[in-house]
Design a protein that fits this description.
Length: about 160
């Protein structure tokens, strides 16, 4: 007669296999629902470590800033109308240091801006989003075309 000491072990093995079979048999592919895309009010594009291009609107001409001029860029942002303003910082792989500097300046600006606006009823709230850009030629043009057409597809 076989030893009965292995029966609990075999019971666990068969139960595990049964659970796997049930999970795989009942598993359904759930389509990933995409949420509403972020509306872009202002766009900052960085393609190299030296300069960024600031687009205050889809139809307006860009202004060029260096990382030392970020406070001036933040001042031009502060002049925008009230409400929730979405700022997208699009960057290539050559812009990680500029991205970090911009993020620090943005944090300083929003802290100061919110402290000044705490007493006012018409507050402006800025949201910053980052969007990686491909290094391929034409990535910036595709991003700008998508923004200007009202679509927010990424340029990858």
């Amino acid at each position: 007669m076989p030893s009965l000491s292995l029966l609990p072990f075999l019971d666990i093995i068969f139960a595990t296999i049964g659970i796997f079979i049930v999970v795989f048999a009942l598993q359904q592919i759930v389509p990933q629902a995409s949420g509403r895309q972020l509306t872009v009010d202002h766009l900052v594009i960085c393609t190299d470590e030296r300069t960024v291009s600031f687009y205050p609107g889809p139809t307006r001409e860009p202004a060029t800033f260096t990382s030392r001029q970020f406070p001036a860029l933040m001042n031009s942002l502060a002049e925008s109308a009230g409400g929730v303003r979405n700022l997208v910082f699009a960057f290539t792989s050559a812009c990680f240091e500029t991205r970090r500097t911009f993020e620090e300046e943005f944090a300083k600006m929003t802290a100061l801006f919110h402290a000044q606006q705490a007493k006012r009823a018409d507050q402006t709230i800025f949201r910053l989003a980052f969007q990686p850009l491909s290094a391929q030629p034409g990535a910036v043009e595709r991003l700008l075309a998508a923004w200007r057409s009202g679509s927010s597809d990424d340029a990858k």
